[in-house]
Amino acid sequence: MDYELVTSLDEVVQNIKQFNSDLSEELDVISQLSQFKHWYFIPQINLFGPSKYIGYKDMNTSRYNRGRSKTGVDTEKELKTWFIKLSRDSENSKKLMTELEAILACHNKKTRTNAHIHILKNGINLKIE
């Protein structure tokens, strides 16, 4: 099965919403939370999502299939269109990492020690419906 990469920020937003919905429904993706390295944050909706999940079109937990046939390398390249990686030492990164750690802790999971936070690039205006 081929998976297409996202081509618009709207698709990324939908995937992040779906990821968080899957978490709230206690779906299988919870078992993989500690494996994700690159996390993306959109302040307008106050949600995080991992690269390997949000970087493919129309993603959900069953399509994600524990990451089989997917690579974070491809999704990282695509997501750079809209996001920048924060320095791990920056105040914003530390604040967001603390928020992410709290979310994962609700599912008895921890972030990877080498996890990174990515945020929308300056100037990207997101209209949330």
UniProtKB/TrEMBL annotation:
Origin superkingdom: Bacteria
Name of the featured protein: Uncharacterized protein
Biological source species: Evansella tamaricis
